[in-house]
Structures are given as C-alpha cells and as structure tokens.
Amino acid sequence: MNRWSQPILGVLGAIALWWGATRVFGIRPLFLPAPPDIVAAFRAQPGYLLREAGATLTVTVAGFVLAVVTGLFVAVSLTAWRSLERATLPVLVALNSVPKVAVAPLLVVWLGFGSRPKIVLVLLICVFPIVVATMAGLTSTPAELGELGRSLSATGWQTYLKIRLPWALPQVFTGLKVAVSLAVIGAVVAEISQPGGGLGAVIVLSGMSFDTPLAFAAIVLLALLSTMLFYLVVALERLLVPWSRAISG
Amino acid sequence: MIRLAGVSRTFASRDGDVTALRDLDLDIAEDQFVAVVGRSGCGKSTLLRLMAGLLAPTAGTVTIDGAAVTRPRQDVVLMHQLPALLPWRTALGNVMLPVEIRRLPRAEHQARAAELLDSVGLAGFHQRHPYELSGGMQQRVALCRALIQRPRVLLMDEPFSALDALTREELATQLQAMHMSAPATTVFVTHSIPEAVLLADRVVVLSTRPGRVLRVVDVDLPRPRSFGHNAHVARAAEHIAELHDLLIEN
Ligand SMILES: Nc1ncnc2c1ncn2[C@@H]1O[C@H](COP(=O)(O)OP(=O)(O)O)[C@@H](O)[C@H]1O
Ligand SMILES: [Mg+2]
Fold first, then answer.
1. Rounded to two decimals, what is the model's pTM?
2. What ipTM was estimated for this complex?
3. Range of the domain at B24
4. Chain A interface includes B72 (CB < 8 A)
C-alpha cells in the first residue's frame, strides 16, 4: 500500500456507496443522479462544459494572482512599520469577517457586466487570508534569529530579505492554500449572481431546466478544478520551502 | 582588553525593577579564556549581551581596547545555547551568512568556511540543512559561523548546554584545540564546573542576583587539558571543589 492507494480507495468507495444508494432506493436522477448519469451529461456536451470550466479557471486564477500580489504587498508594507501594523490589523480582521459574497451584486453595479466584477470578488474573498497569514509570518521571527541579525549589524533591508521573509514563507503558503480554495468559491458565487458564463452559470441554467445531471457534472468539474489548484499550490510550496515540513514535523 | 567598570543593569518588569547586575568590575586580558559561572538568573547572559553591544549598561562603562561598546562590533561575536541557524540554508550557507551581511570578500571566505566545517568534523555535511543534522552538529555549524569573521572576542552563552554529555565533552575539547591554535579573547558562560576548569585560564564566579564578581579563580593547569586531567587530577579536583563550594554557599 503506498500513500496514494488509501485516498483513491476512499474516493472510489464513496462513489460506489452513492451509486448503490441511488439503485437500492430507486432515487430519480432529477433528485440525485447516479455517477453514470453525470458521465453521460458530460459526454453529451464536453466542449461546452470544458469551455465554461476554462472561463471559471481564468477568473479564479486572475483573481487569485491579483490577490497574491496585493496581499503580499499590503502585508509587507504594514509590517515594515510596527505602529502601522498595530493600527491596521484590527481593521483587516474586521474586513475579513464581512461576508464578501454579499458584495457580489454591488460589484456588478460598480463595475458593470463581464469578467471584471468576478475577478474583483475573487480578489476580495481571498486577499485577507493572504494578508493575515503573511503578517503573522513576518512578525513571528524567533527572537534568537532577530538577535543574530542585530549582532551582525544587518541593515533593516538585509534582515528582511535574509531572515524575516524566508522565515515567513511557510505561513504565507498556509494563507495561499486557504485562499486558493476560497478563490474557486468566489468565482462560482460571482458567476451565479451574474450568469453569463462559467460553471456557476451552468449550474444556474441547468437548475432552471431541471437538468440535475448537468448541474452535477458542473459541480464535479468545479471540485476537480479546486483540487487541482490546491495541489498546484502544495507543489509550489514543496519546491520553494522544502524545509518547512521538516522543521514543523 | 575588555574592561567593565562599575557596571549595573536594571530591567523594568511588571513587578518593579529587576537589577540583574550591580556595580560589577571585571578586566579580561587579550586572548584570555574566561569562564563565568553562577546560579540561574544571576545576570550571566546580561553580562555577555553588554559586552556584545546588544544591551547598554544602566550605570558604569564597558570598553574594548579603551573604546566604549555602544553597538555590536565586527570583531566581537556572541554564540548562544540555541544554534539559531537559518533552516533554509545549508551548513555552508549558514556559515557564510556573516560574510554576506558584512559584505566581506566571498571567494576567500567560502574556502575558509569549508575549512572550518572540516575542522569540526563536518567534512561530509557542507550541503546538509540544519534539520538533517543532530543538535551537536548544528552547534558546530554555529561555532563555525561565529569563527568565520576571525573575531577577536568570542562570547559564548552556555553554548553546549543543550547537548548530551558526551557531545558536550567532545565539543569542549575541540574548542580548547581551536583556542590553542588560534587564540581569541573568550568569555564562556557555563553551568558545568568541570567544563570551566577544562577550558578557562580564569573562572569568574558571580553572586546571586544582583550579580557581582564573588571570586575569580585562576586555573593554572598546563594545556592541553582533558576531562581525565591525566597527571593533574589532584589540582583539577581542588579547583573543582573550590568552585563547588563557592557556588553552593551563596
Ligand atoms: N530583557 C529583559 N527584561 C526583563 N528582565 C530581564 C531581561 N533580561 C534579563 N532579565 C532579568 O535579569 C536577570 C538576569 O538574567 P540573565 O542575565 O538572563 O541571567 P542568567 O543568564 O545568569 O541566567 C533575571 O532575573 C532576568 O529575569
Ligand atoms: Mg542565561
């Protein structure tokens, strides 16, 4: 048994259970489609579904990348001045607790139709975890490393680049992993509140036409998308901070 | 070379001021090896941080070669109980950190860093990361990082306390060899009396808080010394007994 076989068995088991339940209890596909119904729905119009998945992916990635750039910039600027950090952290935490989903319709009012309000919603939803995690990382430099920098008469800039920033990276990645999952949610919420394209719109449209298998096909694609993006971030983490697992574990 | 005159240091704390050191006088000659012993909390770390320029005295003066110590100096290094290595750097990369920060010539120091690592028995481990090294090996890397700048003053704050007894003796013996071949003025805080007697020319005994110099014991055993003390067992035992009594009495 390698480390992959158990999760794969788990997923297969869940699918089998689901399939069995639809059979045993005779559930109609309108309420809960069985796995083959979903596969059939996908195979009926693969081009359409993949294109919409591509649209969702584009919005998600655009918003996420923007959030990473903005989040890192904000966190780095705020931690550069201790007093600024103390003043702004409560504001950030308060903003973070506002349900950004509620802003989705307003964004359309402010930014019009198209992909701009969607990207902005993704940005809003996933920027805060990045800011908060990065700030936490940048302010958690162990005392002995701070003193090492001081005793070497390192400049503020050197301390930042050679000690504080690398030390913060594992926590930055913790924020990125939270944010990337939120990014997909943000994209879908934006697409549902402003149908026009993407898998969110597919779900709205198929719901209106009672095409539950199609909605499920879109949901499965979303889950795959989200998982793929998450593991991309994990892979990047392994590449950039291989030492993080070693010291935390 | 290092002179502390009437040095006091007080810290503000929640329940009033704590005086860590009061009116302390101490003179340390060039290239001398001085061990400092004393109960926990008597101000040994504070003493080193004052000499390192990381802390200012509340009263009195700390001078090195006649110049007041007001900030960290390039020729003075402080080494801690914790190795304080950067986990993302290799052993060699960690030793090179001071070179990068102080913008010293890289090529020549790279060779020196490699030599230093070899000399403490880390020949095959230059490219390993700290998490791949044992505690003793990590502390050796920290020692090399301290020595890369050829400090004139080496301040060591219980550097071997976190290590097992055998590794500790091994490192102390290595430190003695290094001090003999390339001497530097060394102030070495320790809780181990045998370690102090092995390494030091003079052992400074501090009183309980507020710390002041209770007694200075000269150790005039010939070098190289060893933990077995060979022919000098009796004299070493006398020193050890004297230091024990001083520490336990107060
Ligand atoms: N930065 C500080 N702030 C407040 N109190 C301190 C500080 N550093 C040391 N002290 C106090 O000063 C005393 C001496 O501390 P220290 O020099 O670390 O002792 P030692 O190293 O001998 O164990 C202790 O009582 C300690 O609590
Ligand atoms: Mg101490």
1. 0.85
2. 0.86
3. 2-75+153-249
4. yes
